[in-house]
Amino acid sequence: MDTSSTNKRRMRSGAVALGGMGLLAATLVACGSSNEPDKRCASRSSLDHLNNKDCKSGGTGSYYYGGSVKNGKVTGGSFDKSAVTRGGIGGHSSSGSSGG
Fold first, then answer.
1. Which class for 66: exposed (0-12), middle (13-18), buried (19 or more C-beta within 10 A)?
2. How many CB atoms lie within 10 A of CB 62?
3. Which pLDDT tens digits describe the chain residue by residue (100 residues)?
4. Helix (H) or strand (E) holding 29
5. Model confidence pTM above 0.85
6. How far apart are CA 5 and CA 87, in angstroms?
């Protein structure tokens, strides 16, 4: 058997495997993303970022949706889950205002 044909066959099967892995990864990313915004536990009064246990039943915190944590404070999100939309691949964020 010719070694060049063996190398070509290996390359082709490797390309198929890599292509299949890329397709699988893209599918997982698309299916794995939910429409749920990120949430983190925070104090309503001070906006301090808290441990998740503080948002459990009887805790002092509330879930803060979207946004981020900067210098130990939550920012850019809302305690109202319905006020926050999640973007992502093929997603978009709404600004809350409509033209017209």
1. buried
2. 16
3. 556 555 555 556 555 555 666 666 666 555 555 677 889 999 999 999 999 999 998 899 999 999 999 999 999 999 999 888 765 444 444 444 444 4
4. helix 3-32
5. no
6. 47
